[in-house]
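Quick one:
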Amino acid sequence: MAPFDAPFLNAVSPLEDACVRLAAASARSLSMTSFSHVALSHVALGRRALVRALLLVLPLLALPFSAPAFAHEFRLGSLEIIHPWVRAAAAGGNAGGFFSVTNEGAEPDRLVRVESAIAARVELHTTIDDGGIMRMRALPDGLALPPGDTASLAPGSNHVMFFDLKAPLVAGSHFDAVLVFEKAGRLPVMFMVEAATAN
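Output:
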């Protein structure tokens, strides 16, 4: 039996009709059988009561599609890494990688390199102001992680550089990498790809 038939869509105003149609389409696309039961009982509820309920439900239906990029974290011993991410970029281009790492231990450590098959070369970089011109410089000794401190890799500051990308980085996708620390060792992580305009 089709739960979204013509009588159900016969709301009492254009606004109500639009709300009901949108909710019906959302329910079909999400296979919401519970919503079907609401639809079948619309006569008992009254059209206006149903539409009021729909106005409360519709924002919830949109959540899976409009939620912002989520933060994710990884842990290795006393090190906590928060939300590795990059901006979308074309294959053959370069991309900066960003995240924060907190050393919650009593001993210093150091991020010595980042490895990933997504790029031909991966380096740790910083950004300096050279007479008003921002330039990148490699960090051959890695990034120091003093105990109790948080190091932020961010646009315009320290960052990971992925050179000569082997595949396009499409917003909403992700790729694997490994963070290598001097003492803590190797930590597999996942970089999320955000919009090219993300900051």
